[in-house]
Amino acid sequence: MGLSPEIRALYARAIENPAGLSAAEQNRVLGRPPPEEEDELCLAQFGINRQALISKALTEPDTLSHTQCDIVLTGTHYHSSNPSALSLPLDDLVSLSPEECQLQSDAYGEVRRATNWYNTEAPAVHNAFERSKAIREQERAERKRKREQQVELIQTAMRLPRPKWIQDLMDAQLPRWGFVCFRTGYATKDDDKASPAAEDAAWDQLRWTFNDIAELVLTHWWKRDGPRLYETCEHVFISDPDLKGASPEHLRARFRTMRDRDEIPEGVHRDCFLVADAEALSCEYIAQKKEYRGGRDWVPYVKAFDPDYDETTGPLKGDFAGEINVPLPKVFDWLHYTLFTNCETWQERHRQTTQETWQPIRTAYAPYPAYTGVWEGRKW
């Protein structure tokens, strides 16, 4: 497939009389959109038209942004995530014969000469290239600085006797720590799916799973004094038939009553409670009585509730509606610590549990038990 008759005729006219072409035709020969479209694109991105951008490249090149440099260099349809998406005629993207390539090149050169490109825009392109190179060098230097900073922070963390977050918890000297966990998944004689005895067995298995996963997370993932946290890990499990299928409002009221009556042991969270509903009790992990061996696949989830969420206001920013689903392994490090230090809001926890993928922590010396499991040397 070669040049279309239309483009071939345009190139021939450009060679014969480039000044006789319209501005749109000249741009087409140069592989650019029509002038009005170029201006619209520049105005939308930078608030100035293309000619103003060229003038800026000529007189104030040091003020060009990376994107502005790219546009001066490659065209207004350039996008850094798709550098090949330029506004070139389709014929430029197909295989041309040597004769057609020469025709295209000759037309291109004649239009550039006719538009005085070498005196007007060529210096702007040169300036944009130099500015772009300087920006890339600055970015490389910044990446190097961050890498060196990360290495320093990691080395500092490795020299500490224990991760910072564990030290923070140990400094509090709490006699215990844990969560109140309500059971809302029940079966009655009229239920078809499970008998009460089977549901009770599932509840017992869930309680055992709490301890099994807590032990692995705190003694294997966080082996640098995580076992000392495991020794004081105690939960309050509440199984009451009156809570079968209880609404969030009912559960919050029940928890707040316990809190007001000082029925929650010292150290157990009063700013959050957990719920094991029918879905949690009937999941395959519980049904098959699995033992946790690490990893992120196929783990039970529980719901974590903000007891002070106001149902009358409706969902907050980010669609947080008072509860989140948490993979059980993250209950014992990430959820516990972020509540203890109040370093993340409920909205932020909701964002992470709905938009990010949780992972086991990758380094036992990380100062923060990140939900994603990744600590990149950042300060917390």
Would you mind describing this structure in some detail?
- It is a single chain.
- The chain starts with a helix and ends in a 25-residue tail after the last helix.
- The protein contains 16 helices and 5 strands.
- It has a 5-stranded mixed sheet with strand order 2-1-3-4-5, sandwiched between helices.
- With 380 residues, it is an alpha/beta fold.
Furnish the topology, listing elements before pairings:
Layout: H1 5-16, H2 23-29, H3 35-46, H4 50-59, H5 66-74, H6 98-114, H7 117-120, H8 122-159, H9 164-172, E1 178-183, H10 196-221, H11 226-231, E2 236-239, H12 248-260, E3 268-276, H13 278-281, H14 284-287, E4 301-305, E5 323-327, H15 328-341, H16 346-355
Parallel strand pairs: 1-2, 1-3
Antiparallel strand pairs: 3-4, 4-5
Helix pairs in contact: 1-6, 4-8, 5-8, 10-15
Largest sheet, strands/sense/barrel: 5 strands, mixed
* Tally of distinct domains: 2
Strand content: 5-15%
Number of strands: 5
Compute the number of helices.
16
Distance between the termini: 59 Å
Which secondary-structure class do the elements indicate?
Answer: alpha/beta
Poorly predicted regions are: 79-93
Strands across the major sheet, in which order? 2-1-3-4-5
What oligomeric state is this? single chain
Mean pLDDT: 88
Please tag this protein with its features:
single chain; 380 residues; alpha/beta; 2 domains; 16 helices; 5 strands; elongated
Summary?
With 380 residues, the chain is α/β, with parallel strands linked by helices.
